[in-house]
Amino acid sequence: xxxxxxxxxxxxxxxxxxxxxxxxxxxxxxxxxxxxxxxxxxxxxxxxxxxxxxxxxxxxxxxxxxxxxxxxxxxxxxxxxxxxxxxxxxxxxxxxxxxxxxxxxxxxxxxxxxxxxxxxxxxxxxxxxxxxxxxxxxxxxxxxxxxxxxxxxxxxxxxxxxxxxxxxxxxxxxxxxxxxxxxxxxxxxxxxxxxxxxxxxxxxxxxxxxxxxxxxxxxxxxxxxxxxxxxx
Length: 232
Fold this sequence. Notes:
The protein is mainly beta and about 230 residues long. It has helices at about 25-35, 195-200; strands spanning about 20-25, 55-60, 65, 85-90, 95-105, 110-115, 120-125, 135-140, 145-155, 155, 160, 165-170, 180-185. The protein has one domain. The chain contains 2 helices and 13 strands, in the order E-H-E-E-E-E-E-E-E-E-E-E-E-E-H. The strands form 3 sheets. It has an 8-stranded antiparallel barrel with strand order 4-5-6-7-8-9-12-13. A 3-stranded antiparallel beta sheet has the order 1-2-3. The protein has a two-stranded antiparallel sheet with strand order 10-11.
């Protein structure tokens, strides 16, 4: 499988001169998160870190940044009627929820990810890249968005095509660099094709083909969790 991140590519760590930043409304983010957290099994989710002007800033390549653009002129993503639709989830071997992303506004997913044992609120950019990172995952920190992981659509496994319903994820700080977290699309049969393609899949979901079938999806991911955190 193609590496999640090309090690030879080293983009600048901060926006360059003339680079146009996009923004995401933290109020809208928090509304969707509140609904999400009522439906997932995850404990000790921290509050959402506040941001200046209540805006999250994203670079053109999908990576988050602590730098800010002009809040007076930036165009925010239009509200999406598909927001809160579950898109992809992943679980650890011990049964803990590792990742849950729902549709946000515009070309973004949002949700929670367990990174180094701690849940973080994340905003993921859908890049549509079929050969590398179709998702760039950014965590919300007090200093803005920080890129913490990547997701790649699985179009082939060991050279063989598959059903296009799974993604491989990698997060910063993992000790086993060869081990990837496998996430499953929640409802690939009904997921809009535009979203499916933006995740990096090169063909529509094919449930009726001879492609190898993926492992069954967990059935316990929409139970309300006692003690789950709420956005602050």
